[in-house]
Design brief:
8 helices, alpha/beta, 4-stranded mixed β-sheet
């Protein structure tokens, strides 16, 4: 079993390496994936969550994989496949706990840890059943300027959103979101990446997920909340099948994120977990909206 330090540090070091190279590994440079969901999935079809999404996106970006299904060496063999000789696997983690209780110890505290294991993209595996390989569909001939799927998703949350001016922000006091005029955005990717980023901040209000939104610009708490919002936006964009490219002040944010990650090797794992919770909270509002309509 890998130690807590080894697993946390390996993940953090991988993210830091990309940030120092000027790359944000959660940016997905495409509108949709005709081969399936943008979210990485296990051989069973179950979606990965949290930090594993970022790690597998990063692995795909570096290796150029188009497929989003991953499995262990043993799973590939059980399906009749074989990992090609020389292929290098990618790290994913599983949260677990162990009980260090001694026979004479009455304390039954369960201690959490991360267990790392290796998976392979199906593009690294031969002879899998045909259902794992799907032909790519043609890309749309013209860009989509209005994505009703995203518009409906945002509308169902009930968030108060006003378009106008030049600023994009969530305002805690009036509990609303300000967005620039639509015409100011470069394209729909920039618009929806920005909107879902602000929606993620909105989810952190005290009467919702109660995250710390009080940090001032330049503080570590501010940097972490911005990281949570950006990761959540990337998860939401993937879920909704659109590209994620916020075009923010990259140099400033990269510097603040690097500082936070270097100060705390758990920061990226914690941020990814909070981002996943934000995305799931916003998805949960969709079900509430549907229930109210049915009633």
């Amino acid at each position: 079993m890998q130690t807590i330090k080894d697993t946390y540090q390996r993940i953090t070091d991988a993210i830091i390496e990309q940030l120092e190279a000027g790359t944000k590994p959660w940016i997905r440079p495409w509108r949709g994936n005709s081969r399936g969901s943008l979210v990485p999935r296990r051989a069973t079809g179950e979606a990965y969550r949290g930090i594993n999404v970022l790690m597998l996106w990063l692995a795909s970006e570096l290796a150029g994989y188009e497929e989003n299904t991953w499995m262990t060496y043993r799973q590939a063999q059980d399906l009749g496949g074989q990992v090609r000789k020389g292929e290098k696997g990618s790290l994913v983690v599983k949260y677990s706990t162990f009980n260090p209780k001694e026979p004479e110890d009455d304390d039954e505290r369960a201690i959490p840890y991360l267990k790392g294991y290796t998976v392979f993209n199906i593009e690294q595996i031969e002879n899998l059943p045909n259902r794992f390989y799907r032909p790519a569909a043609d890309l749309p001939a013209t860009p989509v300027l209005h994505l009703e799927t995203v518009e409906t998703f945002v509308r169902n949350t009930g968030a108060a959103i006003t378009y106008g001016g030049t600023t994009a922000c969530y305002r805690p006091a009036p509990d609303d979101i300000l967005m620039p005029d639509r015409a100011r955005f470069v394209d729909e990717v920039h618009l929806y990446s920005t909107l879902l980023h602000e929606m993620s901040h909105w989810s952190g209000a005290k009467h919702r997920l109660d995250r710390d939104l009080s940090g001032r610009f330049g503080s570590e708490s501010y940097a972490i909340e911005e990281l949570v919002a950006e990761l959540s936006a990337s998860f939401l964009c993937a879920d909704l099948g659109v590209a994620h490219d916020p075009r923010d002040n990259t140099a400033t944010y990269l510097e603040s994120w690097l500082k936070a990650l270097k100060n705390d090797k758990r920061a990226i794992i914690t941020a990814a977990a909070k981002a996943q919770a934000a995305a799931e909270y916003l998805h949960g509002l969709q079900a509430l909206k549907e229930d109210s309509r049915a009633a």
